[in-house]
Amino acid sequence: MKRRLAREKAFQTLFQIDSSDISTEEAMQHVLNEEEEDAFLNQLIDGVIEHKEKIDPWIEEHLEHWTFARLARVEKTLLRMAAYEIKFNEDVPTQVAINEAVELAKIFGEDQSGKFINGVLSKMVK
């Protein structure tokens, strides 16, 4: 599985977990259908879940005129994924993590989601 597809599937899985009270395994089954699991996919999902308590406050520190609780689930999930990649995954260049989050925001978010994600993540890496 290519990393872009793995990020998309990880986003969908994490979004389902955040939206519903279902297990990681159940969410992954819904998202993957017949596709095979992937090491990078599992690393993203497990990493975000494992480090969420460190990631969420880090994101909130960089929000202007917003609280973390007010963020839409799409933006919250994408910010968590990118923050995990930036802070905890040394294999992924920072700019790649930001660009991939922005691209996913354009697909799954509102019209301004990509700009919002880019702005917050850019502040986080300064």
DSSP, total strands: 0
Helix content: over 70%
Average predicted local confidence, pLDDT: 95
User: What is the overall silhouette?
Assistant: globular
CA distance, first residue to last residue: 31 Å
Series of H and E elements: HHHHHH
Largest sheet: none
Oligomer: single chain
Determine the strand fraction and express it as a percent band.
under 5%
Write down the Rg: 13 Å
Describe this structure in words.
Involved in transcription antitermination. Required for transcription of ribosomal RNA (rRNA) genes. Binds specifically to the boxA antiterminator sequence of the ribosomal RNA (rrn) operons. Keywords: RNA-binding, Transcription, Transcription antitermination, Transcription regulation. It holds the Pfam family NusB. By secondary structure, this protein is mainly α. Helix content is 73%, strand content 0%. The chain is built from six helices and no strands. Helix 1 crosses helix 4, helix 3 (39-61) crosses helix 4 and helix 4 packs antiparallel against helix 5. The longest helix is centred in the middle third of the chain and has 23 residues, at 39-61. The relative contact order is 0.14. The model has no long low-confidence stretch (mean pLDDT 95).
